[in-house]
């Protein structure tokens, strides 16, 4: 895919400027990072999750955005890596949230998150409860169920039919939201590997300049996605 | 022990839009001005520069530029008999933080109020009779008229380099502009932005219905522009990362791009960041303030900053919180209806319809914050309230701000939320959806208000503010009326599928879903100290050297975005300060 004729590409422009030097440095380090991560997902060493938890996350992501049908799945785009890193970071720690008591976790959901637990703690506490529920209902842990039964189990979790304490009631919402975030966030966060999710839906990523394209109605935008590190899909 | 710093002529609380404007204008008077900003310093370089700022996760999803509830939040409840709970993470509204405030991450939709809105109570009574005002509704006149504010709207629009098309120039209706706006003394400083495909389709359909589409007034510059402070804007490149982001292109008007570069060069102006004002200190006479106490996070100590003039320029909610904590003005009590601080908190009533077209490619990633074609045919001045059974109105827009895939991708009704069905719909429809939205008024009510929470405290040990708010039948009727009008236009466009989202009978306020950061009222302006916190010059009735800027002054919310009127009011107050108060400090009313 080539850039627009007669117009220097943003990357080309930046290469010739002081900003280009900074960007190039970012790009190099990001490439180096990507290369280190390239071992298959199964060999990824999670920084937050235990191996058991990570096996569940892998299996759940594989159903929330499965490989079959059009478009890449959550495993191909390395979404579980994204979730692991998010839980290890500020999001997992609720670093920005107001976490002073008293807590009323069973409050009207319209009043928002009221659990005393951080998102990372919710995952940690809820996964075993859900795994036990799968054992009780189906005689196997979640990862060992067939796809159809996994979908039914996730639906039960989504609908609140898996008994979870009110402190954990946002568990499914977290997994689903974090999975979609990992699918579509910039690849530097570990998911959206190769910008495959952006390419699939047609989002050009961090191109950030469309002046010539505003008035070209109903046409296909021709350029591939770029990420913040300057890589092209 | 609190440190005491040398006295300043003026102390400004909060360095967003109004703080920057007041800072500049007071500095031009030769006064020693200090602005205290509780958040971080921010500027285009390094904070908004390409490519780091084009990060949806960091800024739009994790709210990188917003207030951190850990540092500052409030509690919320639906009714006076409920227990309020903390707004623990952001959802329904996103207050800004740091230098520039919400002025860095807004979309730039910059409207003027209609003349009728500024004297809403009188307008309703004169045209429909006082009887149509519901018993618990507390609407009132602002105490300033459109004619009085017009020059200040004009100045503010020129400061921001607004792109738009006048619809009423000195009383003469202009083709292509908004025929229902108040008379303007001048055309917009910049021509309208180019339309995206969805805006164009909506405008075409609206015209066919006999409606009057016009370009939404935008603080996204349509061409290179220089303002009165010699600050320069560059033409917007439709990057699609406007709301929730700082502008990478010097195109979106913000305190940084329009004021601060010039203000920082004024030798008699200075500012401190990480300096959170804890209290406005009253003088012994009880009729003035002697300065403010703030927490200096750089040194970890409390500082008393004496000043002759205290300008409260924080976000509307924080203005009210600070007045309550400082015991300036009597707190409002909904049981007796007495008191004023916290009274008439209002929100914004919004709704929208999504249209899905298999054969149309919208390229939604091409967008900017305020681009769009709007109609004002169902605005406050155009609706027969007696006939329709509600008081209020909305403007309606076809357009979009961007196509960020985590937050802005939507799939048609009936799509599963996850699994193969979701994935395939996401791919099939990302490029094929547009929407038409309504942005409407919210009236003030006896039991919608702000006070101090009895339980929860902030990091400084101060009580959090408590919001009591819920939707009322009047405003729900209004938005349902808009639903009917929008769906009529939408259906005429023959989409393959349509989905509507509007509040309906019984809808409760949902704090978890983003709706609008247009929290207004609580320190309202007026001409009667029994129903207002500040007079028509934004001067405190209680302490005459305290002036309170911002949308906390609105007695009820308008149908438009609040930045236009709050900017105009800032310049209106500047003139009162410059031409009257500074020469003879006293209550101006």
Automatic annotation (TrEMBL), chain A:
Signal peptide: 1-32
Keywords, alphabetical: Signal
Entry keyword annotation includes Signal: yes
InterPro entries given in the database record: Gluconate_2DH_su3 (IPR027056), TAT_signal (IPR006311), TAT_signal_bac_arc (IPR019546)
Keyword Glycoprotein in annotation: no
Protein name as it appears in the record: Gluconate 2-dehydrogenase
UniProtKB/TrEMBL annotation, chain B:
Protein family membership: Belongs to the GMC oxidoreductase family.
Domain Glucose-methanol-choline oxidoreductase N-terminal, chain residue ranges per copy: 231-347
GO molecular function annotations of the record: flavin adenine dinucleotide binding; oxidoreductase activity, acting on CH-OH group of donors
Domain of life: Bacteria
Family matches, as PANTHER family: PYRANOSE 2-OXIDASE
Glucose-methanol-choline oxidoreductase C-terminal domain mapped to chain residues: 446-570
Cofactor section: FAD
Gene3D superfamilies: FAD/NAD(P)-binding domain
Protein name: GMC family oxidoreductase
UniProt-annotated stretches for the region Disordered: 171-193
Keywords, sorted A to Z: FAD, Flavoprotein, Oxidoreductase
């Amino acid at each position: 895919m080539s850039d627009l004729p007669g117009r220097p590409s943003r990357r080309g422009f930046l290469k010739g400027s002081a900003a280009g030097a900074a960007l190039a440095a970012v790009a190099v380090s990001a490439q180096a990072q990507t290369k280190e991560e390239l071992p298959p997902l199964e060999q990824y060493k999670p920084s937050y999750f235990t191996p058991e938890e990570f096996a569940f996350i892998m299996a759940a992501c594989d159903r929330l955005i499965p490989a079959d049908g059009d478009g890449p799945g959550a495993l191909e785009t390395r979404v579980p890596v994204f979730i692991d890193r998010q839980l290890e970071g500020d999001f997992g720690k609720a670093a920005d949230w107001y976490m002073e008591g008293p807590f009323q976790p069973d409050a009207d959901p319209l009043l928002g998150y009221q659990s005393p637990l951080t998102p990372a703690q919710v995952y940690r506490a809820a996964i075993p409860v859900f795994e036990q529920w799968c054992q009780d209902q189906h005689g196997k842990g979640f990862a060992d169920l067939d796809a159809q039964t996994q979908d039914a189990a996730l639906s039960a979790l989504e609908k609140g039919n898996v008994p979870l304490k009110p402190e954990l009631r946002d568990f499914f919402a977290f997994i689903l939201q974090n999975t979609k975030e990992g699918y579509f966030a910039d690849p530097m966060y570990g998911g959206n590997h190769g910008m495959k999710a952006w390419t699939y839906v047609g989002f050009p990523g961090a191109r950030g300049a469309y002046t010539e394209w505003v008035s070209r109605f109903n046409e296909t935008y021709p350029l591939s996605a770029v990420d913040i590190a300057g890589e092209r899909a | 022990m609190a440190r005491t710093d040398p006295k300043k002529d003026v102390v400004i609380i909060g360095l967003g839009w109004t703080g920057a404007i007041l800072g500049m204008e007071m500095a031009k008077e030769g006064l020693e001005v200090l602005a205290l900003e509780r958040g971080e310093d921010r500027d285009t370089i390094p904070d908004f520069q390409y490519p780091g700022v084009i990060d949806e996760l960091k800024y739009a999803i994790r709210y990188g530029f917003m207030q951190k509830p850990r540092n500052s939040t409030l509690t919320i409840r639906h009714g006076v008999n409920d227990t309020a709970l903390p707004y623990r993470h952001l959802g329904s509204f996103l207050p800004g933080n740091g230098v520039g405030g919400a002025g860095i991450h807004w979309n730039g939709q910059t409207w003027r109020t209609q003349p009728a809105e500024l004297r809403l109570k009188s307008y309703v009574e004169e045209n429909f009779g006082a009887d149509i005002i519901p018993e618990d509704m507390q609407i009132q006149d602002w105490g300033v008229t459109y004619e009085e504010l017009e020059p200040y709207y004009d100045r503010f629009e020129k400061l921001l380099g607004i792109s738009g098309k006048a619809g009423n120039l000195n009383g003469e209706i202009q083709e292509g502009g908004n025929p229902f706006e108040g008379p303007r003394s001048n055309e917009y400083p910049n021509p309208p932005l180019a339309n995206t495909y969805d805006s164009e389709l909506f405008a075409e359909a609206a015209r066919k219905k006999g409606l009057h589409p016009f370009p939404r007034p935008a603080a996204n510059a349509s061409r290179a522009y220089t303002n009165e402070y010699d600050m320069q804007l560059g033409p917007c490149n439709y990057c699609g990362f406007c709301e929730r982001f700082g502008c990478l292109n010097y195109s979106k008007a913000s305190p940084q791009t329009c004021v601060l570069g010039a203000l920082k060069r004024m030798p008699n102006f200075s500012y401190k960041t990480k300096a959170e004002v804890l209290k406005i200190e009253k003088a012994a006479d009880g009729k003035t303030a002697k300065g403010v106490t703030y927490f200096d996070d750089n040194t970890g100590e409390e500082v008393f900053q004496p000043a002759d003039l205290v300008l409260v320029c924080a976000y509307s909610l924080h203005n009210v919180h600070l007045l309550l904590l400082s015991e300036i003005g009597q707190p409002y009590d909904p049981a007796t209806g007495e008191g004023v601080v916290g009274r008439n908190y209002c929100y914004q009533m919004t709704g929208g319809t999504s249209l899905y077209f298999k054969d149309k490619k919208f390229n939604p990633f091409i967008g900017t914050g305020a681009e769009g074609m709007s109609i004002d045919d169902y605005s406050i001045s155009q609706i027969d309230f007696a006939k329709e059974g509600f008081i209020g109105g909305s403007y309606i827009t076809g357009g979009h701000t961007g196509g960020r895939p985590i937050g802005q991708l939507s799939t048609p009704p009936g799509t599963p939320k996850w699994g193969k069905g979701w994935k395939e719909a996401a791919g099939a429809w990302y490029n094929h959806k547009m929407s038409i939205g309504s942005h409407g008024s919210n009236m003030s009510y006896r039991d919608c208000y702000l006070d101090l929470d009895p339980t929860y405290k902030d990091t400084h040990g101060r009580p959090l503010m408590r919001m009591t708010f819920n939707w009322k039948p009047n405003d729900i009727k209004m938005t349902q009326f808009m639903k009917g009008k929008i769906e009529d236009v939408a259906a005429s466009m023959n989409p393959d599928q349509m989905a509507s989202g509007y509040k309906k009978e019984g809808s409760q306020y949902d704090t978890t879903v983003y709706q609008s950061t247009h929290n207004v009222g609580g320190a309202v302006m007026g001409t009667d100290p029994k129903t207002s916190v500040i007079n028509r010059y934004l001067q405190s009735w209680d302490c005459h050297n305290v002036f309170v800027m911002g949308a906390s002054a609105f007695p009820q919310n308008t149908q438009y975005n609040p930045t236009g009127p709050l900017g105009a009011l800032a310049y209106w107050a500047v003139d009162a300060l410059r031409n009257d108060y500074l020469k003879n400090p006293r209550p101006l009313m």
